[in-house]
Amino acid sequence: MEIKLEAFEALDSTNTYLKKRAAEGAPEGTVVIANEQTGGRGRMGRSFASAPGMGIYMSMLLRPDTGDVQSITAATAVAVCRAIERVCGVKPGIKWINDLFLKGKKICGILCESSLRQDGAEYVVLGIGLNVITRPQDFPEELRCTAGSLYSQTGTVYERGKLISAVISELCAMYETWKRDPAALLDDYKRRCFVLGKAVELTPADGDKFTALAEDISDDFGLVLRLPDGSQKTVHSGVFSIRCDA
Predict the structure, then answer these.
(1) pTM of the prediction?
(2) Are 65 and 118 in contact (CB under 8 A)?
(3) φ and ψ at 59, to 5 degrees?
(4) How far is residue 14's CA from residue 56's CA, in Å, rounded to a whole number?
(5) Which of 28, 132, 207, 226 is deepest in the core (most CB within 10 A)?
(6) In angstroms, what is the C-alpha Rg of the chain?
(7) Any alpha helices (H) in 26-142, and if so which ranges?
């Protein structure tokens, strides 16, 4: 896949911009990077803190034959973990389905958005926000207990350019593997998913909270739960908030 890079000092959101470019016919492999996002977004409409010069805010455009966004979201999390390991020598864990944690704090969010046709995806945009040199005081006050960066969790300042190059390389390798078999990265994903074996609290969008044991990851990257009554339930939707200790 040929990479076409577009870099900006500031954007409202790299995902928002790249979705517009995708609708205009931008080719697969287009990568958008911004030094700052003024309206960074996460899953379920949450904002993503994107201070200038502190992180990697990027999106990649894919045009796969299938609309299997859940598995490619999970595979993207594995790819970014591998890139961080290559450059930094540390091993982040994955909180289902797509948040990366290091030493108990969230350092990276992934947002995959797509436009689907009846026969597959018109496009998929992989959005990645990785906190690199953000200090605790740089985060909004309400996020300081949960958010971290590679610097805050390791004490080391890593070069963003090297990380960007590694992330793009790992995403390209992941995509080729994923096209052959969407479940090819499942075992690697399970090894990195730190919620497995823990009690998790879930809140359905239209229901009451309940607690269950996170037992496994299904072949299509759903979270397999063991409910208090002994029955099993698999969830796929992003309408659940999952809370557990990292």
Answers:
(1) 0.90
(2) no
(3) -140, 145
(4) 11
(5) 132
(6) 17
(7) 69-88
